[in-house]
Amino acid sequence: MAEKTTALLQQALALSDRERAELASLLMDSLDTTMDQDAESAWDGEIARRIAELDAGTAQTIPWEQVRRKISAKIRTHAVTTSRGV
Fold first, then answer.
1. pLDDT tens digits along 17-75
2. How far apart are CA 33 and CA 58, in angstroms?
3. What pLDDT was estimated at residue 19?
4. pTM, to two decimals
5. Distance (Å, rounded) from C-alpha 52 to C-alpha 72?
6. Helix (H) or strand (E) run with residue 76 in it
7. DSSP codes joined into one string, 45-70
8. Distance between CA atoms of 14 and 20, rounded to whole angstroms?
9. C-alpha–C-alpha distance, residues 61 and 72, integer Å
């Protein structure tokens, strides 16, 4: 990593959680320079549908701990298969 990048990273890490999240969002937005209007519209509809399901109590939610365990297991499995060249 370049010296300038390392210095910026150290400054960013000194920010509060909220400030780092905002900075990360702005940096990600700066990389996404093209907008697919159809995709944006589809996501807006999907988000509205999910919110309506949550509000109506019809959504089946999964506790974060369970989701995190599943993600961790998938990452471990992927790391093992990747290291074996599978």
1. 999 999 999 999 899 778 788 999 999 999 999 999 999 999 999 999 999 999 999 99
2. 36
3. 96
4. 0.46
5. 29
6. helix 64-83
7. HHHHHHHHHHHHT------HHHHHHH
8. 9
9. 19
The rounded distance, in Å, linking the Cα atoms of 51 and 48 is 5
Structure-token match 């990389």, residue found: 31
| Other beta carbons less than 10 A from residue 12's beta carbon | 13
Q: What is the DSSP letter of 15?
A: S
Place of tokens 């900075």: 23
Match 């944006």 to its residue by tokens: 40
Decide: helix, strand or coil at residue 1: coil
What are the b/e assignments for 52-66, b being 16+ CB within 10 Å?
eeeeeeeeeeeeeee
Tokens of 84: 């074996």
d(CA 9, CA 2): 11
